[in-house]
Amino acid sequence: MNKTKKILNDPKNVVPELLEGLVDAYHGQVRKLDGVNAVVKSKLPKDKVGLLVGGGSGHEPLFAGFIGRNMADGAACGNVFAAPSPDIILSATKALNQGKGVLYLYGNYAGDNMNFDMAAERAAEEGIATQTVRVWDDVASAPLERMEDRRGIAGDLFVIKIAGAVSAQENDLHEVSRIASKARDNTRSMGIALSAGSLPETGEPTFELPDDEIEIGMGLHGEAGVSREKMLTADALVEKMMHRILSDLPFESGYEVCLLINNLGASTMMELLLANRKAQQILRDKGISVHDTLIGSYCTSQEMAGFSITLMRLDNELKSYYDMPAQSLALVKA
Hints:
alpha/beta; Rossmann fold; 2 domains; 6-stranded mixed sheet; 15 strands; 31% helix; globular
């Protein structure tokens, strides 16, 4: 199989260099910490609960692209598809701490869990309180009775949006954690892939998939889904995805949701709009109203072709925080 061509300098320096480019795009609002791959807001209000997100690089704009007004305060960034080290996380934690503690919010993967937990222990030794919300929205990765084993995928975006708004309003770490957890527990996602992404250092694909097949439930790093099938029409594919998502919470008539159609990297806006068309039809038929729709590249896997669908069920509390204005590199909400 041919290697993927990428426009890079030294592949070993891709993470610090991409963070330098990101900092420049923020025009002084964000700074990179010395010696580690972490970026934080240049200014933080006194007594603010810090919101630290993070995980492996290679999923841009997740995570660092969601730093901003009523969004995250900082991001700890690992190498491509690898968890950030405890040192990176601790450095970001110390930079964000304003005396009210720091909430850790990240996708539910073994390496991230271990390293954030280690950083939390070290932060406690330095008198910094932390709490953790792990996002596990991927309905394809484990059955409902093992929800805490599920992976975090594009649902991270909705949880970060809610948590960022709450942390801008509330200076109580427990309250920020409670509402962020509530957002997480009302969010469900599922993804599909048509072709693989690749690792910048090698150019090698993360998995192999025949040209006439599609992977249902594919993970962000090339983890196996629930099935491989021959190519389907857009409508048939979305029907399969929505059935799994809707039955999992379950989402019922009368509910109000936010909908995300997320590009995994190489799909076209045409394809995303076709997916949105069918998803909206299904929701209307089920009596579920859509409060807001996001379509685009928010949680990617390099040049993986495919998309994911995310639904977040709203109540009055979550809706009020979702509707707060937000300003970040990757998400702007008026």
